[in-house]
């Protein structure tokens, strides 16, 4: 896996919702956090997975069995 640091529970939760096609705004409403906070978690996910964008982060997560 490309991530040197394990993903947090919240990062995994956001990744799961992102893989289901939800937008940052939809995820923020679901988790009752700000849109900015969702984007902050996504930036951390992309860094940990060494992904260039959200789509690649989801693809890498599927490839490495983080989500199904």
Tally of distinct domains = 1
**Biggest β-sheet description:** none
In N-to-C order, the SSE pattern is HHHH
**End-to-end Cα distance:** 15 Å
Total DSSP helices: 4
**Per DSSP, what share of the residues sits in E-state strands of 2 or more residues?**
under 5%
Which class of secondary structure composition applies to the elements?
mainly alpha
Q: What is the CATH third-level topology name? A: Arc Repressor Mutant, subunit A
Radius of gyration: 11 Å
CATH class: Mainly Alpha
Cα shape: globular
Averaging pLDDT over every residue, what do you get? 92
Return residue spans where pLDDT drops below 50 for at least 5 consecutive residues. Answer: none
Task: Say how many strands there are.
Answer: 0
The name of the CATH architecture is Orthogonal Bundle
State the share of residues found in helices, binned by percent: 55-70%
Looking at CATH, the homologous superfamily is Winged helix-like DNA-binding domain superfamily/Winged helix DNA-binding domain
Features:
Arc Repressor Mutant, subunit A; 68 residues; 65% helix; globular; mainly alpha
What does this structure look like?
By secondary structure, this protein is mainly alpha-helical. The chain is globular. Helix 3 (35-49) crosses helix 4. The chain has four helices and no strands. The protein starts with 8 loop residues before the first helix and ends in a 5-residue tail after the last helix. The model has no long low-confidence stretch (mean pLDDT 92). The protein has a single domain, classed as Orthogonal Bundle (Arc Repressor Mutant, subunit A), CATH 1.10.10.
């Amino acid at each position: 896996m490309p991530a040197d640091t394990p993903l947090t529970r919240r990062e995994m939760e956001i990744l799961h919702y992102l893989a289901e096609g939800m937008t940052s705004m939809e995820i923020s409403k679901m988790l009752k956090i700000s849109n900015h906070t969702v984007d902050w978690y996504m930036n951390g996910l992309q860094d940990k997975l060494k992904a260039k964008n959200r789509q690649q982060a989801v693809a890498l997560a599927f490839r490495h069995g983080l989500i199904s």
